[in-house]
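Dissemination and training. As part of the outreach component of the grant, students in the summer workshop were shown how a complex can be specified as a set of sequence lines and then modelled as a single object. The example used during the hands-on session is reproduced here so that future cohorts can follow it. Participants entered these lines:
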Amino acid sequence: MIAPRKLTVSVLAYSGALLFFVVPFLFIGLTAVKSRQQASLLDLSWPTQWQLWENLTAVIEARDYMMIQAFINSAIITVASVTLIVVFSAMVGFVLNRRKTSWNKMIGFLVLSGLMIPPAIVPTIWMLQQLGIFRTLHSMVLIEVAYNISFGIILYRAFFSTIPRDLDEAAIMDGAGPLTLFFKVMMPLLKPVTVTCIVVQSVVIFNDFVHPLYYLPGDDNVTIQLTLYNFQSMFNTAYNLLFMNILVITVPMLIVFLIFNRQIVSGMTSGAIKG
Amino acid sequence: MNRHKPDVRIRKTKSVSIQSYYPMWFFLPAGMIYGLMFLVPTVASFYFSMTHWTLFDQRFIGLDNYREFFNEPFLLKGLINTFLFGFTTSAGKVVLGMALAVLLTSNIYFRGLLRSMVFFPVLVSTIGIGITFTMLMDPNSGLINQALAAIGVDGPRWLIDPDLAIFSVALVEIWRGVGLATLIMIAGLAAIPTDFYEAARLDGATAWQQFWRITLPLSRPAIATVTTLSLIDGLRTFDLVWAMTRGGPGFASDVLASVIYKQYQAGFYGLSTAGNVILFVVIAVVALPIVAYLNREER
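and obtained this result:
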């Protein structure tokens, strides 16, 4: 039995979604596979000749395979900083939840500050220069850790309050030390929140444009978001290549979203509400 | 637990020794990175903002940078636009997010698919979105104005018109971020007990009355969250403005974050840092009271 009202509302909702949320991506996808002349029209017409492969290789080969270098750099930064965020923020969340110290209030305040305060750009560059690590990939990793660890701490602190303390006591009775307790007993239990943390933070760090722009200048250190920025002026007469570039950096996100839909949604909304 | 008195005593002595299993040095790795890369530069920014600082020299000049900021029209414009952008985007995200949340929790086919479609832009590169919409908003060949022309409307000159540019960017930011707002609102709506709606229906309340009397007051925590998040994001925004207009035409769509970048590029490090401190103060002054107010009402 089809309810006419339900059908009407659904059809209206889907037409709206199609117009506002599908057409822009359709535009990206179609323009990316067109020939240069057809792409310059900036319309939604069907490609007269499909140049998927030619455009893709052109984008990858541009500026001496800069895209490949950028993918490698972005992957290194994302993997390294997410790993550090997971371990370090779980450690903080663990002690913060289990031990009531006079530091707790202070740390809570710092965590909120980390979420709200815009980073002071030039003083940070000055700091990196003092440490002698400006323009290096590992300084970028440390920066991403510092800027995103607050969110991780909030996720882990909330999750630890769901793990009963009896478990800690049992492990301690069995002779576990602090490190065994944390890494061997607790870490495996954290899997759900860790998956959420990894996925959400990876998306954020992979998509980060502003901070690599400031802290990682130079062609050798280019990241994936910056290729697009660099190509924007270079490809300004070749829209097909520009949009192929957008497509190339969007597809990984689409794949991640299809696989981890639930974790992304729960992580982004729960972390947001706690924050 | 407290039924057996002796047990309590034992538990207490044990809980003192148990503290050592949660060592304070677990704070250390996170604290060191956070301190060095975020906290120290933030504190230092107050000093640097009061210096004349270029590639060549650095000297203390007191509040001159701030004076310059409030006297130069193109710097002041950035401050005004920051407010405009922050408030329009968060208002837009709250209103549209609520509307979409009501729609997406109502009785329609394949709600999950629709939710995913609305949410996906949140995950896409902001620069990519910015470039795409710059093309779509082209006054002559852009798809948006062509579509408007097809139904007989003369589309505005979105990013070219100095009075409109910042709002055009705000519109795209609302499009990009409304998915997250919607999901938070949906989580808020799901927490409202269905009994309330049944009771209201028995009393003959219309759907409109139900929304104003039940849905809206009871989703206050979700509204607070969306407002807070989008206000802080909006005031700090840089990527989208930079990808779409570079602050132009002229400096008509500059925001604080793009002013900071431009001054940094020009080598005026002290002035750039002053912009940073102003942004910090703006967020503290504007966002914190709103956050405190909305969260106080929560309980």
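The beta strands of chain B are 51-53, 58-60. Students were then asked to discuss how this feature might be tested experimentally.
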